Amino acid sequence: MYIIVGIGNPGRQYENTKHNIGFICLDFLSAAWNIPIQKIKHKALIGEGQHKGERVLLVKPQTFVNLSGESVGEIARFYKVPPENIIVIYDDVNFDAGRIRIRPKGSDGGHNGMKSLIYHLHSDNFPRIRLGVGQKPENYDLADWVLSKFTDEEIKTLSKAVDLVPDMVEEIMEQGVQSAMNRFNGKL
Known about the structure:
38% helix; 6 helices; 7-stranded mixed sheet; Rossmann fold; 21% strand
């Protein structure tokens, strides 16, 4: 069983903001794999289904980004899923919009949502797909930047990366993280 998590903030005011790229990717994955995300369980919106014979949970924590681990930790314990079968998709302000970076594990990199996940999973050993949302301009506060809406140009660029999400997740599940890194890292 795999848990695929998209990190984001609930609520209309946060739709199409940089911090919500994880939610955007999960909505796309949900449509591509025909797994509706409509149940509310474990402080999250969840879609349960199968993909190529593998049981999957699509998870959009509703605890806000900085507390994502509360929901994901609870889900992992309930379903008895090890961290290495939890794939997390989230925003990265250190990369240009649309740049992809997949890693098998690692630190939180200053991302509070990842910090919460590592804390509540008691591990940093889970695959992650980071999507660049553009580097913060000098005159912006970081919180204001990640909560800002995408420009039309950013949407065009990011849509190419979002289109690849089903392939990236599938590659991790079927061939492993290293294969996905070789195939997708650095794409823009």
